[in-house]
Amino acid sequence: MSVEGEAEMLANVTRLEVEAPKKARKSINKGAEIFAKHLKDDTPVDSGALASDVKVGAMKSSTGRFEKQVGYSGKSAWRAHFPDKGTKKQRAQNFSIRAQEESRDEILEVYAEEMRLLDD
User: Which H/E stretch holds residue 97?
Assistant: First the structure.
């Protein structure tokens, strides 16, 4: 997707939030689940504790925009950083970035479908 296409999609997401908040919340829920699945799949297997600790937070709209946090719960969040970003003795695995990249097109398609329904 080009930068222009991305800007247009973000404008459409904003339009969806304003004109159809119920559809926007539905899209955000679907998108959060898609990202959580990819994050779980891309998390390296150690004892399995990190992958099983991927959580999807509650819907928030305090900033005027709907959002959901996806990540590791408090008991594992501090630990996930080390294999993901690396240390002096461990190379970065960048699994959180990989999960974002793998989720991107699927999530954009969810929004695009809701936009098509909005325009019908």
Answer: helix 95-119
- Return the closest-CA partner of residue 86 out of 94, 78, 97: 94
Q: Rounded to the nearest 10 degrees, what angle do helices 95-119 and 3-19 cross at?
A: 60
Classify residue 46 by its DSSP letter: S
Run means of pLDDT, 10 residues per run, the chain, 120 residues: 60 76 87 95 82 91 83 86 92 94 90 77
State what percent of residues in the chain have pLDDT above 90.
39
Dihedral pair phi/psi, residue 9, rounded to 5°: -65, -40
The Cα–Cα gap between 48 and 30 comes to 24
Question: CB under 8 Å to 45, separation ≥6 — which residues?
Answer: 51
Domain ranges within the chain, ordered by starting residue: 3-119
- For the whole model, what pTM was predicted? 0.82
Q: How far apart are the first and last CA of the chain?
A: 24
Three-state secondary structure call for residue 67: strand
